[in-house]
Every structure is written in C-alpha cells, then in structure tokens.
C-alpha cells in the first residue's frame, strides 16, 4: 500500500521507476506494465501508480495518465438547464464540465443546452436533439405528461434520462439527482420559526406549481408550521417564474397589503 506521505527524493535526483514502485507499493515490473501496457493491470493498481507518480513528481506521470485513459469508453452526456442568463445555471454548467472532465472511468463530452422556459414546447425539441446525439441525458424540467412521454420514448431506445434538481417522470426516468426537498422545506420553516422576531404571516414563492421540487418544499414548509409553530400563518403560494423583477413586484405589493407579514420563503430556484 502507499505510504501516508511521499518518499523523500534528494534534490536534483531524477525520480526512477524503482522510486515510483516503492511509493506505489508495487513491483518495478508492475510499473513497467502500466507504462508500456505490456499486460493487463487492475484498474485500482494502475490508479495507485498514477497517484504515486503525481505525488513524487515522476517525469512520466502524464504518460501514465494517458495510458490509463487510452482504453476508456467515450460518452456524450447531454444536459438541459434553464435560464441561460442566470448566474446560478451558468455556474452549474461550469461545474458539470469540470466534473465530467475529472471522471476516471470514462471519457466524457458534456453537451449543455439551456431552455428558455419550463414549458414542454421549449424543452421537448432540446430533449429530442440530445437524444439523437448522446448516450445519457440529465435535465431540469417540470413534471409534465408530455415530458414523461418523451422520456419514455428515449428509455425504449436505451437512452436513460435523469431528473436534475427537481424530479419528474417518476417510474420512467432513470434516477433523480438533487436534494431531499421535503427536508429542505422543513429545515427552512424551522429556521424561520426560530429567527423571526414574532409570529405573523409568511409568504411563499414558487417558480411553478409543476416543479415537483418547489411543490414539495412548499408542502413541507407548511407542514412544519402547522405541526410545530401554529401561530404563524403561511399565505397562499405566489408564482414568480423564477424571475427577479416579477418577484420584486409581487413582494412590494404583498408588503403593502399584508401589514402582519414577517418574512417570505423562496421555494423556487435560479434567483440571485
């Protein structure tokens, strides 16, 4: 096994294969097989040799990385995000690209598209296009029958679709990647009830009632107050389409109409 700390190499001394083998806890012959792809080497062992080469500055560390990646499968991965002008989704796209580039078990090419709205008419063409080019797709979408039908068609063709941030097409999509939104809503209500100066009316904003994540957070938020802080009154949810200006206008109007308002909860997303 590798030691906790890299071995010490005298300054100016060229790191040798023997040094690398000792650092990686393998034989010189194993290092040679990794470098020259002479015989199969277990993935775990090859990764350990590469980590050791990087740690001690072995001159062929880059070559070892190329050898490791030489026989990896190549995948095109499709992603459909929302609101191309929002910082949240731009940052999210960058993180996706970084994560795919760091994958060790495959070569990934992320293809990222941005939908102008959550409506099926904007999402379905993107989903169809990526389905013709990619081996798997992850998307931020509302829970809508037309989207479910499209996901089912792709599944029949062997192309898995994952729901991202907000769940949809339950039982059809491959999996859900995101938070436990029930816990998110209840946690928000707990913090609110502990930090508000006094009980009063509470506003809730959702991007759309069709986003399962937003609806689940809102429901959990209400449930916590009903069970644990009944002196607070949670008002009917306001739809803001995840738009800053619309949120601003609705909040100003609400503050004028509700003098007992003590705060608001943003159950949607994509707003800075």
Account of the protein in words:
- With 272 residues, the chain is an alpha/beta fold.
- The chain has 3 domains: 17-70, 434 Repressor (Amino-terminal Domain) (Orthogonal Bundle); 74-177, 3-Layer(aba) Sandwich (Rossmann fold); 181-266, Response regulator (Rossmann fold), CATH 3.40.50.
- It has 10 helices and 9 strands.
- Strands 2-1-3-4-5 form a 5-stranded parallel beta sheet, with helices on both faces. Strands 6, 7, 8 and 9 form a 4-stranded parallel beta sheet that branches.
- Helix 7 links the parallel strand 3 (136-139) and strand 4.
- Helix 1 packs across helix 2, helix 6 (120-131) packs parallel to helix 7 and helix 8 crosses helix 9 (212-228).
- The longest helix is centred in the C-terminal third of the chain and has 17 residues, at 212-228.
- The radius of gyration is 26 Å and the shape is elongated.
- Mean pLDDT is 90; it is low at 1-10.
Largest sheet features = 5 strands, parallel
Gap between N and C termini: 47 Å
- The radius of gyration computed from the alpha-carbon positions, rounded to a whole number of angstroms, is 26 Å
Pattern of helices and strands:
HHHHEHEHEHEEHEHEEHE
CATH architecture of the largest domain: 3-Layer(aba) Sandwich
* CATH homologous superfamily classification of the largest domain: Response regulator
Strands, total number: 9
Low-confidence runs (pLDDT<50, min 5 residues)? 1-10
User: What is the beta-strand fraction?
Assistant: 15-25%
Q: Give the helix proportion (percent range).
A: 40-55%
Number of domains: 3
Please tell me what the overall shape is: elongated
Mean pLDDT level = 90
Order of the strands making up the biggest sheet: 2-1-3-4-5
């Amino acid at each position: 096994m590798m030691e906790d700390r890299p071995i010490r190499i005298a300054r100016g001394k060229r790191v040798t294969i023997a040094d690398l083998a000792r650092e990686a806890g393998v034989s010189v012959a194993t290092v040679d097989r990794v470098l020259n792809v002479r015989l199969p080497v277990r993935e775990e062992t090859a990764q350990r040799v590469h980590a050791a080469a990087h740690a001690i500055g072995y001159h062929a560390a880059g070559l070892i990385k190329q050898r490791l990646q030489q026989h990896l499968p190549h995948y095109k991965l499709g992603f459909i995000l929302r609101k191309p002008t929002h910082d949240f989704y731009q940052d999210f796209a960058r993180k996706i690209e970084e994560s795919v580039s760091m994958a060790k078990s495959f070569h990934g090419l992320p293809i990222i598209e941005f939908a102008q709205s959550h409506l099926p008419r904007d999402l379905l063409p993107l989903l169809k296009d990526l389905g013709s080019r990619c081996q798997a797709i992850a998307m931020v979408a509302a829970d809508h029958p037309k989207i479910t039908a499209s996901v089912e068609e792709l599944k029949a063709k062997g192309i898995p679709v994952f729901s991202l941030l907000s769940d949809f097409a339950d039982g059809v999509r491959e999996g859900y990647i995101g938070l436990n939104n029930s816990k998110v809503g209840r946690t928000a209500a707990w913090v609110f009830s502990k930090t508000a100066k006094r009980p009063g009316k509470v506003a809730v904003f959702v991007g759309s009632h069709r986003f399962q994540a937003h609806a689940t957070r809102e429901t959990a938020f209400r449930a916590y107050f009903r069970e644990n802080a009944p002196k607070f009154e949670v008002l009917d949810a306001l739809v803001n389409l995840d738009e800053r200006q619309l949120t601003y206008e609705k909040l100003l109007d609400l503050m004028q109409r509700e003098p007992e308002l003590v705060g608001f909860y943003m159950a949607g997303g994509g707003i800075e």
